[in-house]
Write a structure and sequence with these properties.
elongated, alpha/beta, seven-stranded mixed β-sheet, 354 residues, six-stranded parallel β-sheet, single chain
Amino acid sequence: MATMADVARSAGVSVATVSHVLNDTRPVLPGTRQAVLDAIEELGYTPNTLARSLVTARTRSIGLAVSAISNPYFTEILQGVEAAALEHGYSLLIADPHDDPGHERKVVQLLHERRVDGMIVAPSADPRDLVAYLGRHRVPTVFLDRVLDVPEDDGDPRFDQVCAESAEPTTRLVTHLSGLGHRRIGLVAGRPGLSTTRERITGYRHGLAAAGLPYDERLLVHGDSEADGGERATAALLSLAVPPTALVTANNAMTIGALRALRDRGLSVPGDLALCCFDDFAWADLFSPRLTAVAQPSRELGAQAVRLLLERLAAPDRPVRTLRLPCAFVHRTSCGCPEQPRQASAKAHERSLP
């Protein structure tokens, strides 16, 4: 097995130079760095990560805590995180907090005890224990998808954050439905307490106001961000004396639940009820009718979270940042619009929402 000394001899440099290239502990001339990397490749040298962590006090690992990893939205975020982490030479340790505040606190502590260099976390609806732990131990952390208002003494949030726009895209869905003549538009909202839920409710109400429609609290039901909850919420809306004629579902899991509730009642989309959803997913284009949706930049969210974390590790004292990425409106037929040519549909997908 090749050693660091073998690499140094092959590259014509000192062992210390090889160490600096591997650990990024000192600048190395580009030509020298490339010679070291070529020698590593030629000899098949594998660095001792344990020894490296002792030298640098870094493990080159990132802890990722997101709930519902089986959800296609978070699966794509995971792919973005993994690709960006590997690009920069980092490995991932992954945990599922199950959107439970107590379990969230435990898994984050376990990741911290594994000596990850930093964490990327999609916080639960009640993240007080999480925030207290991360703040007390000064763990470099990026909050992902769900943003928190966590002021420090100077009024600035303590953690970097990255998420997609939620309010304006939801407004777009509501105004699209109102433009088709709907006057009773329901919302299946997510789990109470999440920033995404609050923002999508805000967007829903703005959409109603923009269309000159009154807000009716009976038309807003929480589906708790899950398929079963979305099914129950949709059933409740359909049981109203005057049910909605159109529906916005606030994430992909609740969309599945809503479709189940409609199927069980023998109702069709868009014949009996028009449907638009937040979150596009791979098979949304395969439903009949095809689902009109807001598509979030899932992989880019994951990649940006990694970049923010690496920037924080490189400059611990830099100002905190919150990034919001635009979404895209994907116009299909579940809203009651006629089928569009495939080329036109593809162009519609490319149109970003602010």
